[in-house]
Specification:
single chain, about 210 residues, alpha/beta, five-stranded parallel β-sheet, 10 helices, binds 2'-deoxycytidine-5'-monophosphate
Length: about 210
C-alpha cells in the first residue's frame, strides 16, 4: 500500500506522514530531506546551486545515504533545496530511489511535492495537505523558536511564500494536487486531529475499494 502526501512548505505534511506511517506500521520517507541533502552536498563542495552537473552527481551519490535531519531542517537549507529541486536532472536522478522506497512491504508513506503526480501516480491514497499562509508561518516560527532561534514571523511568511511560488512555478514536477487527491485543510486542526482526518481518508478509500 502506498500513501502519497503532498503540499506546500510548512503545511504539516512531514509530521502527518510520520504519524500516519506509525499508525499503519508503514515505512516513511520525507522526500524534502533528499533535496535538502543534495543542496547541502553542493554547498559543501563549493558549487553554486544552479550547477546541474554537480547537482546530478550529488543526487546519484545520495541513494544509500542516511539523512541528518538536524543539519538539513534549517530555513536556509529549505530555500536552497527549493532552488536545486527545480533542476530536471536532479529530479530524474532521484525518481528510482523514491519508487523503490514506495514499493517496500507492507506499505510506505511518502511526503513531498510531486509524489501523487509524478513519483507514485498509482498510489492507493493521495492526500494534498493545505493550511492558511498565516497558520503555516505561525507553526514554522514556533518550530524555529523551539529550536532556540530568534524569529521574525514576517520574514518566515515571506520565505514560505517565495518557496511556494518557486515550487509551483517550475517547469518539471511542479507542486500541485493530483486530480484524485483528497484535500486536507489543517488550518484549524492540531496534529492529532489532522492524523485522525488522514486516517479517516485512508479508511474511506479502503472501504470503498472493498465494496467495489
Ligand atoms: O518539504 P521540504 O520543505 O523539506 O522541501 C524542501 C524543498 O525541496 C521544497 O521547497 C521543494 C523541494 N521538494 C521537491 O521539489 N519535491 C519533493 N518531493 C520534496 C521537496
Amino acid at each position: 500500500m502506498i500513501i502519497a502526501i503532498d503540499g506546500p512548505a510548512a503545511s504539516g505534511k512531514g509530521t502527518l506522514g510520520k504519524r500516519l506511517a506509525a499508525h499503519y506500521g508503514f515505512h516513511h520517507l520525507d522526500t524534502g530531506l533528499i533535496y535538502r541533502a543534495v543542496a547541502r552536498a553542493l554547498l559543501e563542495g563549493g558549487h553554486p546551486l544552479d550547477d546541474e552537473v554537480h547537482a546530478e552527481q550529488a543526487a546519484r551519490r545520495l541513494e544509500a545515504a542516511r539523512f541528518d535531519e538536524g543539519a538539513l531542517k534549517s530555513q536556509a537549507m529549505g530555500e536552497a533545496a527549493s532552488v536545486v529541486s527545480a533542476l530536471p536532472k536532479v529530479r530524474a536522478a532521484l525518481v528510482d530511489f523514491q519508487r523503490r522506497f514506495a514499493g517496500r512491504p507492507p506499505g510506505a508513506v511518502l511526503d513531498g511535492r510531486d509524489i501523487g503526480t509524478v513519483i507514485c501516480p498509482q498510489a492507493d491514497v493521495k492526500i494534498f495537505v493545505i493550511a492558511s499562509e498565516q497558520e503555516r508561518a505561525r507553526r514554522r516560527a514556533a518550530e524555529l523558536r523551539a529550536g532556540g532561534n530568534m524569529v521574525d514571523e514576517e520574514a518566515v511568511l515571506a520565505d514560505i511564500l517565495r518557496r511556494d511560488e518557486r515550487d509551483r512555478g517550475r517547469a518539471v514536477a511542479p507542486l500541485r494536487a493530483a486530480a484524485d487527491a483528497h484535500l486536507l485543510d489543517t488550518t484549524h486542526l492540531d496534529i492529532d486531529a489532522a492524523v485522525r482526518a488522514a486516517v479517516d481518508i485512508v479508511e474511506a478509500v479502503r472501504a470503498g475499494r472493498g465494496h467495489g
